[in-house]
Specification:
heterodimer; A: mainly beta; Methylamine Dehydrogenase, Chain H; Immunoglobulin-like; globular; B: Porin
């Protein structure tokens, strides 16, 4: 009797698994537990260094702004949500620094408000207006950056009869709205901010159709004179994007036009940077796009990533590219999709980690209930094929965040609920370094490479895997954060990758380092 | 018998010597230190008294030292066995009832046998090499009686070995295994 029941159960389970499609069987992404999770108008998130996620939600009706925090260690969301604004908030954004602190900024009316989250005490500062009352700030121009030990910065475009970029710095105790750029005559749009651990900031914006940039100096607390750096051989520039890495190079990319030819160009920058030194890479060229939209990101090793949509007579094309702005090497442009539709869906996100990897996410223009997600692997040097996150209703307000270790979180609004999907891969090891040791015997010498790294911040890491290019060298227990590679050929460049492996066998993104005997 | 007119009255001299050895190679000094003991047995056989007093000499040395590799401090041991042969000029400085003192200077060929053992899995654990070099020496013989003498001497030797291709992924180096020795010995003449 018992045997019959068991076989019946096995048969039923088998039939169920055969009949269900993979996307149906896949568990639905969890809804972010805001106070009214079924009335969310907008969602933004940022993932911190330990995999903790801070999500902002605009709750209807009334547009209250709430924050909830996902603790990666306990795998729980904070409750109840923190109320940052009780009503009339709009255009929220959030960024996290390397310690897990965060700045949330948003609009109320035509003013910018902000609050600082201190990770150690798990507290938010009292929400405060940080823009000048006499000026009118422009929505969708607010940007956040962190200035090392100096604190964090928020910038935005403002209009007081003339046009300028205004900034406010949180120095650990209070907001200091202290500096703005020299006013300009035309409206400012497409504002971007890059910051460095040294306390410098680089702002890029479009003044009319010309990209301008200015540097904020921590010693003077002032923005420098804005300088334009349009390609001199073209007449018009569009859509400038600034990509910066806190401890590495920066790059600007934009679309230029010469006659009927358009080109997507990349300009490496350093902070302080020589704007007058024009050295660019052409990433793509094409004729007369009806629409264009792109995003850029950069890793501290100089890997810059670019993801764009362009639509013209042949339809919509989504492409990506990667160029290292230090070495000038890069991958060929890859084409993810070619749609007959010519409508651009500007829900396109691109972020990179500290190891030279990147993740791009976009809403599929031919299937607006699907999110496509593609990953660039620094180890492979290529973009992988896009994966699909299938929703049940049109995707809105797609937002993506990647931390330095490579953990990502993607959130979106679907039927007025904020859904989130994040990887449960362990955080990659950090601070991977390599140096050469020559062990000299009387008549022989042996070159070896010493690898050192900081342990993954994920608590469930049990192993590290060490690769030299594509060759597995060793598997080490989590208590070991060094490895010596013996018998290395002298004067040879070698790239190493270290992965964290969780108890479930899930492998992290790679931490990578290159030994170059010329360095 | 043909050589009889050219032979001196002096007979064979056999000596046992101990000396301080300082290698030429800074690498050897760094790995094994600057204090080496050079043990030597030498036989000197008179050849001619005229026009200059010349002797032939043959010697065998033994040097051994332990050290640590540069950087990783892995253990390593070296044994050097030089066999030498050459000519000596010998001149009497003093000869009275109390003391006889001879000065000598010479030069010759030195054939080296090298044996190194390294405690590392990443280089060749055992290295053997041999080759021909040269040696120059000088000293004073203090005869205590007609048979026994004390020898105070110094010598300089040189031989560079090239280990350029010892093993894959291991770099070989040129090393001079010669050096400067100074010490003393006791000799028996018969």
């Amino acid at each position: 009797m018992r045997t019959t029941k068991t076989w019946t159960l096995v048969l039923l389970l088998s039939l169920f698994c055969i009949s269900c499609r993979a996307d149906i069987c896949k568990a639905a992404p969890p809804a972010i537990p805001f106070s009214d999770p079924n009335n969310v108008a907008d969602v933004q998130l940022s993932i911190g260094p330990a995999g903790n996620i801070i999500a902002l939600g605009l709750i209807n009706p009334g547009s209250a702004l709430e924050a909830v925090i996902y603790n990666a260690q306990t795998q729980t969301w904070s409750s109840p949500p923190e109320m940052l604004s009780s009503s009339t908030a709009s255009d929220p954004i959030i960024e996290t620094d390397s310690k897990g602190n965060a700045i949330a900024a948003w609009f109320q009316g035509n003013q910018v408000w902000a609050s600082f989250y201190e990770a150690f005490n798990k507290t938010w500062t009292t929400s405060q207006q940080i823009s000048s009352a006499s000026a009118s700030a422009s929505p969708a121009t607010v940007q956040i950056g962190f200035l090392g030990s100096t604190g964090g910065m928020v910038i935005w475009a403002a209009n007081e009869g003339s046009y300028f970029v205004e900034s406010s710095i949180f120095d650990g105790t209070a907001w200091q709205t202290c500096a703005h750029t020299i006013p300009q005559t035309q409206a400012i749009s497409e504002v971007h901010l890059g910051t460095t651990d040294s306390g410098h900031a680089l702002a890029l914006w479009l003044h009319g159709s010309t990209p301008f940039a200015s540097i904020y100096h921590p010693n003077t607390h002032c923005w420098g004179i804005p300088q334009s750096f349009t390609n001199p051989i073209t007449t018009t520039s569009f859509f400038p994007i600034l990509a910066t890495s806190n401890a590495g190079p920066s790059a600007a990319s934009w679309l230029t036009k010469a006659g009927s030819s358009y080109a997507l160009e990349l300009l490496p920058l350093s902070v302080p940077f020589p704007i007058d030194q024009y050295l660019s890479y052409m990433m793509d060229s094409f004729q007369n796009p009806d629409h264009f939209y792109h995003q850029s990101a950069i890793s501290p090793n100089g890997n810059s990533f670019h993801l764009w949509q362009r639509a013209g007579g042949s339809g919509l094309i989504i492409q990506a590219n990667s160029i290292n702005v230090v070495s000038g090497t890069g991958s060929d442009t890859v084409e993810f999709a070619d749609f007959s539709s010519s409508a651009i869906n500007p829900q396109l996100q691109l972020k990179s980690d500290h190891h030279g990897n990147a993740i791009g996410a976009w809403v599929d223009p031919s299937a607006p209930t699907d999110i496509k997600q593609a990953t660039y692997s620094a180890q492979q040097g290529t973009w992988g094929s896009p994966e699909t996150i299938s929703g049940n209703a049109p995707i809105q307000n797609l937002t993506l965040s990647v931390n330095g270790a490579g953990n990502y979180a993607v959130a979106w609004i679907e039927s007025a609920s904020a859904l989130v999907e994040f990887d449960n891969t362990p955080a990659a090891p950090s601070n991977l370094t390599v140096y050469e040791i020559t062990n000299r015997f009387p008549f022989q010498g042996e070159h070896s490479h010493q690898l050192n790294w900081k342990a993954s911040t994920s608590p469930d890491v049990v192993q590290y895997k060490v690769y030299k290019e594509n060759t597995l060298l060793t598997i080490l227990p989590n208590s070991t954060t060094t490895f010596r590679v013996h018998n290395c050929p002298a004067d040879t460049v070698a790239t190493y990758f270290v992965y964290s492996v969780s108890a479930q066998g899930i492998v992290s993104l790679a931490a990578s380092v290159t030994f170059n005997p010329q360095d | 018998m043909i050589l009889t007119p050219w032979l001196c009255a002096d007979a064979f001299l056999i000596e046992g010597k101990l000396a301080y050895f300082l290698p030429n190679s800074s690498t050897l000094r760094e790995i094994y230190g600057s204090s080496w003991l050079n043990s030597q047995v030498e036989i000197t056989h008179p050849l001619t008294c005229w026009p200059i007093p010349l002797s032939a000499f043959w010697s065998i040395n033994y040097l051994s030292n332990c050290g640590e590799s540069i950087d990783d401090q892995d253990g390593t041991k070296i044994r050097i066995l030089p066999i030498s042969g050459g000519l000596k000029f010998r001149h009497n400085l003093r000869d009275d009832e109390k003391l006889r003192i001879d000065f000598y200077a010479g030069a010759g060929a030195r054939y080296y046998f090298i044996h190194v053992k390294n405690s590392s899995d990443f280089v060749k654990r055992t290295v053997n090499k041999d080759g021909l070099g040269w040696v120059a020496q000088g000293g004073l013989l203090f005869f205590l009686n007609c048979r026994v003498c004390i020898d105070l001497f110094a010598d300089y030797s040189s031989k560079t070995f090239d280990f350029s291709s010892t093993a894959p992924l291991v770099t070989g180096h040129k090393v001079n295994v010669g050096g400067f020795s100074a010490g003393g010995g006791i000799g028996f003449q018969f």
